[in-house]
Amino acid sequence: YFLVIDDVWKKQDWDFLRAAFPDNNNGSRIIATTRIIKVAKSCCSNSGDQLYQMPPLNDVDSRRLFFNRIFNLENSCPPQLEDVSARILRKCGGVPLAIITIASLLSHKPQNPAEWERLQDSIGAGLSYESDGDGKDMRHILLLSYWDLPHHLKTCLLYLCIYPEDAKISCEELKWKWIAEGFIATKWGSLYQEAESCSNELVNRSMIQIVDDVDSFEEKYCQVHDMVFDLIISLSDE
């Protein structure tokens, strides 16, 4: 057999799964992915097992990702924002989700140093691949984006917790559900157009992402990143 087990969070989960796949020297392989170093090490119980740790983005790629999201150009940044941008990127620790989340938040802010400094201060100590094993620092960054959402977008985002994790959600179906639930209101134009605007805004803020579906050439689908999904589940329980 050849298995890929994605996103393992607890050593106990791995121990439970591993017991179902005995090693009988017939060439079977298991690949497990996790964000937590301790879990990764527990997956490597045999001498032949290998641990591969994904490296963070380097400074050049981090800047490209950051500036492209904000300015639509990989190497374009006003001189007055260069210093604060560098400090924000250091706090993102080369983690792509953190960079995209903060950049999406800044893309809706005025491009002045004082505004960016306030955001830089609110990030706190920042994160790194090594220090954020439990995801708390990343959750803090995601919360910054969540609290920056207008009230109606918060409601629309939290509604996504009704779907299973990693579900591919029909954008068309989702918009009509928002309308049916009474989340969408407008003083002019149609409710559908307003729902479309809400959907686009959540995509632009990187709270949801458009995904390809090989079975559908016309209908668009969206998906919630698993860490964003964990966040909205916890917020919905509060």
From TrEMBL:
Q: Which domain of life is it from?
A: Eukaryota
Pfam families, from UniProt? Answer: NB-ARC, WHD_DRP
Keywords on this record?
A: Plant defense, Repeat
Q: Which Gene3D superfamilies match?
A: Helical domain of apoptotic protease-activating factors, P-loop containing nucleotide triphosphate hydrolases, Winged helix-like DNA-binding domain superfamily/Winged helix DNA-binding domain
**Residues in domain Disease resistance protein winged helix?**
162-232
One Gene Ontology BP term is: plant-type hypersensitive response
Q: What is this protein called?
A: Uncharacterized protein
